[in-house]
Amino acid sequence: MAIRQLPPNLINRIAAGEVVERPASVVKELVENAIDAGASRIDVTATAGGLQLICVADDGAGMSAGDLELAIERHATSKLAGDDLSHILTLGFRGEALPSIGAVARLVITSRAKDAHEAFQISVDGGRKSPRKPAARAAGTEVEVRDLFYATPARLKFMKSERAEAAAISDQVKRLALAHPEIAFSLSTGDRTTLRLEASPPGLLDHGLARLGRILGADFVEDALPVSASRGAVTVEGFAGLPTLHRPNGLNIYLVVNGRPVRDKLIAGTVRAAYGDLVPRGRYPMLALFLDVPPDEVDVNVHPAKTELRFRDANGVRSLLIGALRDALGAAGHRATGSLAQDALHRMAPPSSMPSPPSGARSYQSYARPPHAGLAERAQAPFEGVAAPSADMRGAATEDETPSGYPLGAARAQVQDTFIIAETGDALVIVDQHAAHERLVYERLKSALANGGISRQMLLIPDVVELDADAAGALLAASDELERLGLVIEAFGAQAIAVREVPALLGTCDVKGLLNDLAGTLMEAEDGDGARTLSERLDHVLSTMACHGSVRAGRRLSPQEMNALLRDMEQTPFSGQCNHGRPTYVELKLTDIEKLFQRR
Q1: Dihedrals φ, ψ of 175, to 5°?
Q2: DSSP reduced 3-state for 494
Q3: Strand duo 287-292 + 253-257: pairing
Q4: How far is residue 431's CA from residue 588's CA, in Å, rounded to a whole number?
Q5: How far apart are CA 68 and CA 331, in angstroms?
Q6: For residues 503-532, b (16+ Cβ closer than 10 Å) or e, as one string?
Q7: Is the dihedral of CA 170, 171, 174, 179 positive or negative?
Q8: Strand partners, 224
Q9: Calpha distance 77→96 (Å, rounded)
Q10: HEC profile for 527-562?
Q11: CA–CA distance, 454 with 461 (Å, rounded to integer)
């Protein structure tokens, strides 16, 4: 077949396949144009998931008659002053969006420049351009896109449901609105307005949280931690949710680079690394981070949709983000999300005061079952015959300890030998003793490792543990690492391990169970991400050790031990969640408890 030049209408439709993936892609391109035009207000309307109509109106700079005609030509842009693609200061710069949209839909653009006396309109229908004509409009631009993909009906087969497409549009508008809090936004389906955001005053950390709360929810406002750091000319600001505030997907991770919302794999992976074991596996934190990088230090021209970036100093950016997030999370101390208490109170409410359960939910009658046999007796049982406080639960309570003297209060009871009930000046605190002590032991092990090594205690008689060949091999291959962590092992026959020394912090623990879990952790690391750093690998091993060296559920504690645990939690970073990301305590305000009993 001979080589031939493709006709312009086919070229435009091919280009549209790169730029216009779905209705949300159209919304993204048009809103970015409005932002680049200096708009202070942007109104978006989308019907039938954007397939029937998309309309984006702004009060920006607008276009002259000549600019309006050039806007629908390929590779025509007002956003590059010269030919330097290494210094991009705008969101759109390729000049492909409008002609690509016009190639697959019915496009009408009405615009009036701010200093002009009249507006003009131009249209493109499936690639066919119409002459411009006078129109009536205030300063700014309005772009209407109707019957998206009618010119390429095969593309319609790949669209999702109207609801899914509408959700994608909403997500796109929220991300752009979050990136530009100085602009007012609205999103409408034609029948109703689903999102309305007023412009926020300057100052992200001072005024931006209220705006972010409209997008990420009230829970985020209550549990957001300010993030601020810089390294050279690179700065990061924003808010990160407490580790106990997490979601089943990454949709609530908002990342903005130089005013551009991105879904960059480097940054997303960095966020996960910064939270580490503070968030449960398969769950994702909530945060909004704004990164400012010199334009020549980042390449935004990597992908047609401009959602991926390439940093000149990727390791420097990663290090800055991890440091900033860990500083913010560490400063939170033992804090846990307040929504945990609301969930608990909702479950505790008597059936008469609760609304009817939603369809498919379990009956509220399940909450009215009689309490577990012996619960009251065990909660009130005297603290007699218990073991002495362990070496790592020091700082026992004083005689005059009062509930209001400490953030987590004073211990009042132990329920089911698992949960500590403490009283503060205005709340009741329920602590999971195993989860809490697990975090404490883990942080002490990490601190000891960072400060010269973990002290070891020698076993009088080596503990010999039988394992399968793979597990034994994984442990022996990591014996040098384990020795650094205070665990000294050696081969004992073909499928057995002899344990000679253990970390002193673990005290007496189930050595066989520890080795089995450590082997599983090590083999999982080998089968998973091969790029896992040594520090991350060691953290996983330390976490497994801490689990075996902590106070177990089912152990009776003395009042001194319980209060010592509370005091240690108050002084230990990240103690609001265990090594697996689960919360360690729930705080119930007395005012909310009084409401349960209709005293308020």
Answers
A1: -65, -40
A2: coil
A3: parallel
A4: 11
A5: 53
A6: bbbbbebebeebbbbbbebbeebeeeeeee
A7: negative
A8: 241
A9: 9
A10: HCCCCCCHHHHHHHHHHHHHHHCCCCCCCCCCHHHH
A11: 21
Among 150, 156, 99, 157, residue whose Cα is nearest residue 128: 99
Q: How confident is the model at residue 392 (pLDDT cuts 50, 70, 90)?
A: very low
Tens digits of residue pLDDT in 16-53: 656 788 999 999 999 999 999 999 999 999 999 999 99
Element (H, E) at 193: strand 193-197
- Confidence category of residue 144, pLDDT binned at 50, 70, 90: very high
**What's the rounded Cα separation, in Å, for the pair 88 and 301?**
9
C-alpha–C-alpha distance, residues 574 and 336, integer Å: 9
Name residue, tokens 């997303």: 268
pLDDT the model gives residue 91: 74
Tokens at 281, concatenated: 């596996």
* pLDDT band, very low/low/confident/very high, at 266 (cuts 50, 70, 90): confident
User: 543 — alpha (psi -120 to 50), left (phi > 0) or beta?
Assistant: alpha
Please report which residue ranges of 382-499 form alpha helices under DSSP H.
Answer: 433-450, 469-477, 479-484
Pairing of strands 53-58, 41-47: antiparallel
How far, in Å, CA of 511 to CA of 531, rounded?
Answer: 29
The DSSP call for residue 196 is E
Please, how many CA atoms are within 13 Å of residue 276, restricted to the half-sphere of its CB? Answer: 21
597: helix, coil or strand?
Answer: coil
32, 34, 39, 45: CA torsion to nearest 10: -100
Could you give the count of Cα atoms lying within 13 Å of 245 in the half-sphere of its Cβ?
Answer: 27
* Burial category of 167 from C-beta neighbours within 10 Å (exposed 0-12, middle 13-18, buried 19 and up): middle
Q: Strands 119-125 and 106-112: what pairing?
A: antiparallel
- From the list 335, 343, 223, the residue with the least C-alpha distance to 288 is 223
Angle between helices 97-104 and 8-19 in degrees, nearest 10: 110
| Angular region, 306: left φ>0, alpha ψ -120 to 50, beta rest | left
Query: 78 with 38: CB under 8 angstroms?
Result: no
Q: Where are the alpha helices (DSSP H) in 284-412?
A: 314-331, 339-348, 375-380
Both structure tokens of 187: 């999103």
CA–CA dist 38, 575 (Å, integer)? 46
Helix (H, G, I), strand (E, B) or coil at 500: strand
**Apex CA 92: angle with CA 88 and CA 97, to 5°?**
150
pLDDT of residue 118: 93
The dihedrals phi and psi of 484, each to the nearest 5 degrees, come to -60, -30
- Which residues 6+ apart lie within 8 Å of 162 measured at CB? 48, 49, 51
3-class state of residue 228 by DSSP: strand
Give me the sign of the Cα torsion angle 328, 329, 333, 339: positive
